Amino acid sequence: MKVLAAMSGGVDSAVAAARAAEAGHEVVGVHMALSKSRDQTRTGSRGCCTVEDASDARVAAERIGIPYYVWDLSDDFHDLVVEDFLTEYAAGRTPNPCVRCNERIKFASLLERATALGFDAVCTGHYASIRADGPGGAPSLHRSRNQAKDQSYVLAVMGPEAARRSLFPLGEDETKEAVRAEARKRGLGVSTKPDSYDICFVADGDTRGFLERHLGEAPGEVVDTGGTVLGTHRGTHGFTVGQRRGLGIQQPAADGAPRYVVDIDPASRQVVIGAAELLSRRELVATDLIAFEPLEAGRAVTAQIRAHGEALPGRILEVPTAATTPASGGTSGGLLRVALDTPVRGVAPGQTLVLYDGDRVLAAATLERRP
């Protein structure tokens, strides 16, 4: 099989590419250059895809003995991930840029280019598994055996078609230490390289500062649920539902209890704060459903709303009209409604909702405001 191995410059993608080559596949390594700033370096970045990362990926590819190329996907990344991030925050929503990157870059732009060049599959170092146990024996996406590193949540938006054409060689590994040990054994210099973290295009980790620089200031009011003005802010994009600190208010609640952001209204420029109990929800409503198999009302599922959050048991209340598995991993219109057995806190519009059956991914969708 002809395989395109996405090589970030880290240990996981290097070992994944090595395993694919060792399995007898015809492997070509490619590094996706996502940053428009060619001056970005790892010492000044907390993310991935820096100048040093491209160099590390090249050295790893040479050690494995596979061809290696750098593809400039910075325009796609800026338009489909960075701009989406800014637009969503401006609309009072809380997106996960890693989800968007996986959906629109790694398993859309990259797979499209791979297909055009005659590759059969894309291989990455993600911690997830593809198994042939979906309906009719179709390939399905599963959690990694390494629960601490599991990335099935951020991969769920890839859809069934991309799953059929993806290889995740690390999905059955139980520890990251085992992967690093294998990298050392293979002579890969990235064996001790630290993991990337946080938002890769916010190099200094200051998300609020990044948003202010790009969206500017739009002053407004901080109010309680009764509409009483408690303070001011410089822009609703500096807040997320569930936030407790940096609210810009001086007077404490009458009962002395902590207060949190419970709603954001960009149109009126108001940030609404309230008691913790207002953050709890038993019912989740989402749109833009990407289903790996047909869903039906009444089905028991577990639901996860954060990358490393707990998966909570519940059941599907409603699926979009005629919602079936999208033939190409596309989205279906209408609402997905899920009732949880126990309430979950901090549900914010724009977050990704992923449904599981055990460790198998059933679907992904985008959370909306309260029903």
TrEMBL record:
Q: Does the keyword Repeat apply?
A: no
- Looking at the record, the residues that make up the tRNA-specific 2-thiouridylase MnmA-like central domain are 209-274
Protein's cellular compartments = Cytoplasm
The protein in question is named: tRNA-specific 2-thiouridylase MnmA
The residues listed in the UniProt record as binding ATP, with positions renumbered to this chain, are 6-13, 32, 125
EC numbers = 2.8.1.13
Q: Which gene encodes it?
A: mnmA
Recorded hits in HAMAP family, A to Z, give: tRNA_thiouridyl_MnmA (MF_00144)
The catalytic activity, as recorded, is: S-sulfanyl-L-cysteinyl-[protein] + uridine(34) in tRNA + AH2 + ATP = 2-thiouridine(34) in tRNA + L-cysteinyl-[protein] + A + AMP + diphosphate + H(+)
User: Which family does the similarity line name?
Assistant: Belongs to the MnmA/TRMU family.
Annotated InterPro entries: MnmA-like, MnmA-like_C, MnmA-like_central, MnmA-like_central_sf, Rossmann-like_a/b/a_fold
Name where it mostly resides: cytoplasm
Say what the protein does. Answer: Catalyzes the 2-thiolation of uridine at the wobble position (U34) of tRNA, leading to the formation of s(2)U34.
What keywords would UniProt list here?
Answer: ATP-binding, Cytoplasm, Disulfide bond, Nucleotide-binding, RNA-binding, Transferase, tRNA processing, tRNA-binding
SUPFAM superfamilies attached here?
Answer: Adenine nucleotide alpha hydrolases-like
Give the GO cellular component terms, alphabetically: cytoplasm
